[in-house]
TrEMBL record:
Top-level taxon in the UniProt lineage: Bacteria
Keyword Signal: yes
Name the UniProt record assigns to this protein: Outer membrane biogenesis protein BamB
Organism lineage string: Bacteria, Pseudomonadati, Planctomycetota, Planctomycetia, Pirellulales
Keyword Electron transport: no
Coiled-coil regions, chain positions: none
């Protein structure tokens, strides 16, 4: 149990800042070096005096330039592209964020050239340092959607950075770029080795090496287990949304982070992939019933199944499956619109106190829809889904998974409870106020592409219908909903819990700020007969598709066009 407790502490303060003051108060998190801050993916840094009031100031709509005189509690602002979905990472004295090329930072790539860009800024003043440029694939939107840029967050360790490009490449970069006067990689062209260019160490092309055919783009924020990088390849359907060009290509892989060599691969979703695969993996050491610790790489598949693997693989280039979990009801069905009741997994799994949490979702272009939020015990083996599918011709033998609908009653299919199930609780809808009716918004979990955040056993998650849910993370059997709040705008990102506050952004550009509490009367305040976030909502001037993060007591928020470093001033 000691190893698990240490892992939970790492998720709170970051591996590089595990130190405590004399009064046992955790030191502020100095770096947020990957999506979720650590491999358990729980967005809960340590910080103090984090602002709950700020004003982003005024901008020149033609040039994008910022007028600092009108701003409040804003340390600096950096111009990004026109569409920013990548989550910010803070490490090595730098801020890294993915966007498109509408900012036109490099002379050789004017703003009218469509690229996927990973930008690097100095965290002291927001000064632009370098850019990695991913030119668009010639195959177009089926593999590399126009103007979407880089939607992933990198992993940073020391002076090295790893990330997945929209082109389906895993790349290793030097965090210094060429500012250190050294070329760490194979590129020698002077145009590509200028001071404001990225210094590429190695490249692993998943399309070329593995036959992957990603749908729209790759969008995996990878993580690492020692020297092992864990990656979702993005393999998916073609433009018809019906055919899978590469059903046998891997969906999950492990790469040596020093050399870029493939260690193992897995194609479990196979021809059951519904659409694309845009989730990111998690890693944790799980305490098993016998007291041993089992390392687990946890992948969310485009077939709607969650998978647990041994991160070392089988030793022969293949995967070693520990367990798998179907996150959809067996009779749910898939079509490419909001009427579908079967979904895949876009959110990142989060590990907390030996439990795994994830919600189902869908491409936002396909609209809102029914959702499910799961709490799973990862100590099982084999199929740990809540149900198993059978057919009347052989009612004792489970049938294989089907792509669009696991159980089709008209074909003699039926479902039974799975005696091997590892569901702890499941939230889809709940009559929380006891009036005998289900509120289709506040008492319902909808599709989500965001991940949960948990602190003090209190869980928060936003769904794509704009409902912000607060639940008991450690419930057993039945879910326990503490409260819900309607943001009246779709939420793409995930919550941030810091300094006993909870921050969540939405498509309208508002950041809602709650007190961290299971009690709705503490988390919110009554205003004009409605319950509102305790610290109100602050508009960022443009849509917020990303997740707020905190490092060294500075709050970082990206809207579509700018990155803001927010810090309380004297």
């Amino acid at each position: 149990m000691k190893s698990l407790n240490l892992l939970c502490v790492f998720s709170l303060v970051g591996a590089s800042t595990l130190s405590f003051a004399a009064d046992s108060v955790p030191a502020p998190t100095k770096e947020w070096n990957q999506w979720g801050g650590s491999s358990v993916r729980n967005n809960v840094p340590v910080g103090t005096d984090i602002p709950t009031e700020w004003n982003v100031g005024e901008f020149d709509f033609k040039t994008g330039e910022w007028d600092s005189e009108t701003a409040e509690n804003v340390k600096w602002v950096a111009r990004l592209g026109s569409q920013t979905y990548g989550n910010c990472v803070i490490a090595d004295g730098k801020a890294f964020v993915g966007t498109n090329n509408s900012g036109g930072w490099l002379e050789r790539y004017p703003s009218n050239v469509d690229l996927g860009c990973l930008l690097c800024f100095d965290i002291e003043d927001g000064k632009f340092l370098w850019q990695h440029s991913s030119e668009k694939l010639k195959t177009g939107r089926v593999h590399d959607w126009p103007l979407q840029g880089i939607c992933t967050a990198p992993l940073v360790e020391g002076k090295k950075l790893w990330f997945v490009t929209s082109r389906g490449e895993v790349r290793c970069l030097d965090t210094e770029g060429f500012h250190d006067g050294e070329n760490d990689g194979p590129i020698t062209d002077e145009q590509h080795t200028a001071e404001n260019e990225a210094d590429v160490v190695w490249v692993f092309d998943m399309m070329r090496e593995l036959g992957v055919s990603q749908h729209n783009m790759c969008s995996c924020s990878l993580t690492a287990v020692g020297d092992i990088l864990l990656v979702v390849t993005g393999n998916g359907v073609d433009e018809s949304h019906l055919n899978l060009p590469s059903p046998n290509a891997p969906s999950f892989i492990a790469i040596d982070k020093n050399s870029g060599k493939l260690l193992w691969s897995d194609d479990s979703p196979g021809d059951a992939i519904l659409h694309g695969q845009w989730s990111s993996p998690a890693y944790a050491e799980i305490e098993m019933p016998d007291g041993t610790m089992q390392p687990q790489a946890i992948f969310a598949g485009g077939d709607g199944w969650l998978y647990g693997f041994d991160p070392k693989g089988d030793g022969e280039g293949g995967s070693k499956l520990l367990w798998k979990f179907d996150a959809n009801p067996k009779e749910s069905f898939y079509v490419v619109n909001s009427s579908a009741t079967r979904n895949h997994l876009i959110a990142t799994p989060v590990v907390y106190k030996n439990r795994v949490y994830i919600g189902v979702g869908e491409d936002p272009e396909h609209g809102e829809g029914v959702g499910h939020l799961w709490c799973i015990d990862p100590t099982g083996s084999g199929d740990v889904s809540p149900e198993l599918a059978f057919n009347s011709e052989d009612p004792d033998e489970p049938i294989a998974p089907k792509r669009l609908q696991a159980v089709v009653p008209e074909e003699g299919d039926f479902a039974r409870p799975n005696p091997n199930s590892k569901v702890i609780w499941h939230y889809s809808e709940l009559d929380d106020n006891g009036d005998g009716e289900i509120d289709p918004f506040l008492e319902t979990m909808h599709r989500t592409i965001g991940s949960v955040a948990i602190k003090d056993d209190v869980l928060y998650v936003a769904d794509f219908s704009g409902i912000f849910h607060c639940l008991d993370a450690m419930a057993t059997g039945e879910p326990k909903v503490h409260w819900s709040y309607d943001m009246y705008a779709a939420a793409w990102g995930s919550p941030l819990i810091v300094d006993d506050k909870v921050y969540i952004g939405d498509e309208d550009g508002d950041i809602a700020i709650f007190n961290h509490s299971a009690d709705p009367n503490e988390a919110m305040v009554e205003d004009g007969g409605e319950m509102m976030p305790a610290h109100g909502e602050i508009n960022m001037g443009n849509s917020v598709y990303s997740t707020p993060v905190v490092a060294d007591n500075v709050l970082y928020i990206s809207n579509r066009t700018h990155l803001f470093a927010i810090e309380k001033k004297e």
